Structures are given as structure tokens and as C-alpha cells.
């Protein structure tokens, strides 16, 4: 197709693979934004009903019409993935096919132009390669966080799909989402006054609005000394949904891996990989509704996602009562295995990693 021709041409201009440079304190990286060489940008126009070949742009600011759909009606979706500098010195990305599929599920839900998988992959390769010196060195504990996002950039006044969409890929080197203190565990609080997502709302896609809606609950949780919110289902307020920016997973007294199954939860790619690794280790894996009552009896609880990997949950507070979870053994084992695969220390049996 025409797009494939354009992408093939762009491939010839991919920058060389470079070594880590400039940042000296890689071990101290926070989960934040550092200046990089630039980002990749593609534009879709209703005039041609197609995407352009994309550009690499150094300026982190952009010009947009004041009536762009994203500014008023929240027409935006994002993804999160990571690139790692592996034991052999090469840079690999993890499970991108899942991210591109999830973005397109969201694009259909928000009536935005889908992003072809090839274009998604190429844009990520381009952004990572052109910023290769910002991929943290092997052994530093850091990684490159990749943020692909899609938004309605064309002007509209009445509520309707946008005449123009922009797809971008930005990157930044990061450390742990919860910081160095994560080893001692994160303290969660059940959000009693707000719901995250309705059963048939947009909780199952990575729409920007889901995160805006979580800001006040999160602010209140942090003011109470907690690290994250935990949401229950909006309909019955009985089943566990997920944390602020990560899925819920638990290990039962019988050693089973349990994770909530619900249409209003974001289908976490990390969770999917951990379920596979748990099966590989012979554990029983159960994606099913999980009541808060049941959670109180669990041996281990974790919060999983691209940014958090698998963070131990030390406690969950429900009103005045604090339930503590002491162990983090099975989940820690799974976390270590996933990280070893990502860093190329352990065989990638499921074909998740791809060299950039
Ligand atoms: N749930 C929410 C609400 C998230 O924001 C994230 C982060 O991406 C996740 C779960 C974890 O998903 P993934 O493992 O695909 O990063
Ligand atoms: C991720 O884990 O990649 C996310 O998208 C969560 C984000 C709020 C940092």
C-alpha cells in the first residue's frame, strides 16, 4: 500500500544505534520527564483519509487549533511501553503488538482513526533509535518509557469525530514509578466516594479522561498518607476492580494467582504476561470476579503495569480498618522472571521481545 511505501522510505533514514550517554546518575532516575532529542509525529487527515509518512520533531511543544477535539471533548488515548538495554548491549522493546491492538480498540471506542500496526511499530523504532543514548544502561535498574498517544487535533464545535488526528511517540528514561521505597510496599486505600469506570463506560480503554477522573480521588488518598487508590466495581461496590494506574493481582492461601475479570478494567499487558509466567511455573491462574471480602484472606497482593511492573501492596485500608499483607514471595518471583526476560537474561520463550 501507499503507507507501506512511505514507511519503507522512512526506514532507510532510521538513526544509528547508539550507546548510553549524557545522564550520569542512571541509578537515581525517577518516573519523570527528561529532555530528549525529540519525538515522532504522524498526522491523519479526513481530506485523504490516510496517515502521512511521519516526521521526527525536536521541539517538545506543538501548535494546535484552539478548537481541537482533544482540548474540549477529551479525544485522546495513550499507551505505555518500555525499551530495555539488555545483557548483550542491544535494545529491545516488550510486547508492542499488544499495545497497538489496545490502542486500536480505544480508537474504535472514541471514533478516532486507527493506527496501522506497522506504522505504530515503525514510529516506536524511530523514536527509540533517535533517542538511543537515553536508554538506561544494562544493570542500572532503569528503562526507557515509551509513550505513544493518539488525539483529535482537528477543530470541531459540535460533538462529532475530528477531521484530523495526530499520533505521536515520545520517550523518556525512567526509574521505578513508586520510587526507591517500593520494596517496603505500597499502602492502598479503597476509594469509597468515587467510581473509576461504569460497566459499559470507557474503563476498558486507555482514554485520557479516565485518568483525569482519578486525580481527585488520588489527591485525597495521598493527603491521607496512601500511595494509591483501589477501586471497587461501580455497580455493586463489592468486587475489586483495579488500582489507580495498575491492575490488581493476588495470591490466595492455596497459592492460586487471582486477578479481577471485568469489562471496566484496563486489560493490562503486564498482567497477561505474568499470568503466562505463573502458568509456566505450574500455578493455577484465575481471571474472575474477585470480591473485597475474598481479598482480605489473600496471602499476597500486587499492583501490576508497565510503569509499576509488580509493586508489592503492603496494606489496603477500608474506612477505618487496615488490612496488611506481609508476604511478597510468589509475586516477587514472577516479577524477577519478567524482568529477566525483559533484560535478556532469561530465554524469551513467548516471543515478547523485539530488537529495535
Ligand atoms: N490499569 C490502568 C488503569 C493503567 O493505567 C495501567 C497502565 O498502563 C494498567 C492497568 C497496566 O497496564 P499495562 O500492564 O498494559 O501497562
Ligand atoms: C503505564 O503503566 O504505562 C501507565 O500508562 C500508567 C501511567 C499513568 C504512568
UniProtKB/TrEMBL annotation:
Belongs to the class-IV pyridoxal-phosphate-dependent aminotransferase family. It comes from the Eukaryota. Keywords: Aminotransferase, Pyridoxal phosphate, Transferase. GO terms for molecular function: branched-chain-amino-acid transaminase activity. The modification N6-(pyridoxal phosphate)lysine is found at residue 206. One of its GO terms (biological process) is branched-chain amino acid metabolic process. Its cofactor is pyridoxal 5'-phosphate. This is Branched-chain amino acid aminotransferase.
Amino acid at each position: 500500500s501507499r503507507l507501506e511505501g512511505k514507511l519503507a522510505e522512512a526506514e532507510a533514514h532510521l538513526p544509528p544505534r547508539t550507546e548510553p550517554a549524557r545522564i550520569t546518575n542512571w541509578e537515581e532516575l525517577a518516573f519523570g520527564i527528561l529532555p530528549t532529542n525529540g519525538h515522532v509525529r504522524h498526522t491523519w487527515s479526513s481530506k485523504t483519509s490516510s496517515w502521512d509518512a511521519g516526521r521526527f520533531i525536536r521541539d517538545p511543544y506543538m501548535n494546535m487549533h484552539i478548537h481541537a477535539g482533544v482540548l474540549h471533548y477529551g479525544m485522546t488515548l495513550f499507551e505505555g511501553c518500555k525499551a530495555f538495554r539488555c545483557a548483550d548491549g542491544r535494545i529491545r522493546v516488550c510486547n508492542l503488538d499488544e499495545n497497538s491492538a489496545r490502542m486500536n480498540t480505544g480508537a474504535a471506542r472514541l471514533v478516532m482513526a486507527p493506527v496501522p500496526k506497522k506504522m505504530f511499530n515503525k514510529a516506536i523504532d524511530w523514536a527509540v533509535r533517535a533517542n538511543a543514548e537515553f536508554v538506561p544502561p544494562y544493570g542500572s535498574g532503569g528503562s526507557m518509557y515509551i509513550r505513544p498517544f493518539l488525539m483529535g487535533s482537528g477543530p470541531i464545535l459540535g460533538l462529532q469525530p475530528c477531521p484530523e488526528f495526530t499520533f505521536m511517540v515520545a520517550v523518556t528514561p525512567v526509574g521505578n514509578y513508586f520510587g526507591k521505597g517500593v520494596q517496603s510496599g505500597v499502602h492502598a486505600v479503597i476509594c469509597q466516594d468515587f467510581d473509576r469506570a461504569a460497566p459499559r463506560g470507557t474503563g476498558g480503554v486507555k482514554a485520557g479522561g479516565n485518568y483525569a477522573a482519578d486525580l481527585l480521588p488520588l489527591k485525597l488518598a495521598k493527603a491521607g498518607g496512601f500511595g494509591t487508590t483501589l477501586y471497587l466495581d461501580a455497580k455493586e461496590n463489592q468486587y475489586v476492580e483495579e488500582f489507580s494506574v495498575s491492575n490488581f493481582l493476588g495470591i490466595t492461601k492455596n497459592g492460586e494467582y487471582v486477578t479481577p475479570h471485568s469489562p471496566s478494567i484496563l486489560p493490562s499487558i503486564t498482567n497477561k504476561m505474568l499470568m503466562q509466567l505463573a502458568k509456566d511455573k505450574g500455578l493455577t491462574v484465575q481471571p474472575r470476579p474477585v470480591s473485597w471480602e475474598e481479598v482480605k484472606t489473600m496471602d499476597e497482593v500486587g499492583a501490576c503495569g508497565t510503569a509499576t511492573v509488580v509493586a508489592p501492596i503492603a496494606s489496603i485500608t477500608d474506612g477505618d480498618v487496615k488490612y496488611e499483607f506481609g508476604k511478597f514471595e510468589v509475586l516477587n518471583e514472577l516479577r524477577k522472571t519478567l524482568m529477566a526476560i525483559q533484560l535478556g537474561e532469561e530465554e524469551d520463550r513467548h516471543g515478547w521481545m523485539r530488537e529495535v
